[in-house]
Design a protein that fits this description.
binds magnesium ion; binds adenosine-5'-diphosphate; Kinesin; 28% helix; alpha+beta
Length: 368
């Protein structure tokens, strides 16, 4: 099994009200796989150009159907939720059925469109719900009587470096412990609820339950935005009867909506919020350091220590980053000149993530 790079997509959203009110200018251009950004303070400078597996233009060229679903205007290059699912979510699904671990994470500043792509709003469901829906549709089309499925759902958030179970009403003070499996070396959250789910409707219900349990603190950037990392994990098992017993194909899907990548100062945070920002950045900067170390490794550098242990997030994402997983990153971009610095730093982050190599294997074992 050859090493495979992390797939990286970028997506640019429409202007938001704040940007319209401030008469913001569009500084992002896309052409094929490449994305360019113009420096608004140096208009005659060449735009900086980056190349990604997918560059999604979702800035304009859309209309809303009577059923509330946003679709492309014919002839435009608008990338809809369905388009993004078809490119990214369908691959996750196919890999899950083959028994690979998959990870999908969304990066970007608050308000850039991470949750829109991952979870979506209202009728405009994002990759996660569509993937779950399709998972159950595919399972229900199975006609093999020797095959059965088991699906476990869990949802947690990392807030101030503490892990909270979003499916539990009473989390211990100080959060759940992260432990390391002594034989496999993998980190896991001790006591995290993993609930069996038998339909898409059940997953939907659990996701709603989890979403209402999230720690929501307002910042100037986006009043309802969560300052926490949210991780949805789906364990998908396929159990097959064989003449000699049973075998199990297992896939772990990690779907991660990261907290805003902006520095605490640009959101006007002070006091507690600032301290919290520093902690959020601890997980995000640890993620950045892990990505850099992995990029160095894949460029042939020797004696690189990958600092997974530096944060809760990187411990839990260890497999997703440089391990046994097929991994996709979506970087969400603001189109506006007023967010130039953050958007450029998101593009650079995404550019580094492209260099990570993973080695996914099919997880298939006899059941005893
Ligand atoms: P984040 O999770 O990064 O903080 P959100 O996903 O909540 O940001 O997006 C902020 C706002 O922008 C939301 O109102 C959302 O509906 C809108 N938005 C984001 N991405 C898109 C998109 N691709 N198309 C249309 N609206 C979008
Ligand atoms: Mg969000």
């Amino acid at each position: 099994m050859p090493d495979e790079s992390v797939k990286v997509a970028v997506r640019v959203r429409p202007f938001n009200q704040r940007e319209i009110d401030r008469e913001a200018k569009l500084i992002i251009q896309m052409k094929g796989q490449s994305t360019s950004i113009e420096n608004p303070d140096a208009r005659n400078e060449e735009p900086k150009t980056f190349s990604f597996d997918y560059s999604y233009w979702s800035h304009d060229g859309f209309k809303t159907n009577p059923d509330g679903i946003v679709v492309e205007v014919p002839g435009s290059n608008y990338a809809s939720q369905r388009k993004v699912f078809n490119d990214l979510g369908q691959g996750v699904l196919d890999n899950a059925f083959e028994g690979y671990n998959c990870s999908l994470f969304a990066y970007g500043q608050t308000g850039s469109g991470k949750s829109y792509s991952m979870v979506g709003y209202g009728a405009n469901r994002g990759i996660v719900p569509i993937t779950c829906d399709e998972l159950f549709k595919t399972m229900s089309s199975n006609t093999d009587p020797d095959k059965r499925y088991e699906v476990l759902f869990s949802m947690l958030e990392i807030y101030n470096e503490q892990v909270r179970d979003l499916l539990s009403k009473d989390n211990p003070k100080g959060g759940l412990n992260i432990r390391q499996n002594p034989t496999l070396g993998m980190f896991y959250v001790e006591g995290l609820k993993k609930v069996p789910v038998g339909s898409y409707a059940e997953i939907e219900k659990r996701m709603e339950q989890g979403t209402t349990q999230r720690t929501v603190a307002s910042t100037n950037m986006n009043a309802t935005s969560s300052r926490a990392h949210t991780v949805v994990t789906i364990v998908f098992d396929q159990i097959l009867k064989t003449p000699n017993g049973e075998t199990k194909k297992s896939s772990v899907m990690n779907l991660v909506d990261l907290a805003g990548s902006e520095r605490a100062d640009s959101t006007g945070a002070t006091g507690d919020r600032l301290k919290e920002g520093a902690n959020i950045n601890r997980s995000l900067s640890a993620l950045g350091n892990v990505i850099s170390a992995l990029a160095d490794l894949s460029m042939g550098k020797k004696k690189v220590v990958v600092p997974y242990r530096d944060s809760a997030l990187t411990k839990l994402l260890q497999n997703a980053l440089g391990g046994n997983s097929k991994t996709i990153m979506i970087a969400a971009l603001s189109p506006a000149d007023i967010n130039y610095d953050e958007t450029l730093s998101t593009l650079r982050y995404a550019d580094r993530a492209k260099k990570i190599k993973n080695r996914a294997v099919v997880n298939e074992n006899p059941l005893d």
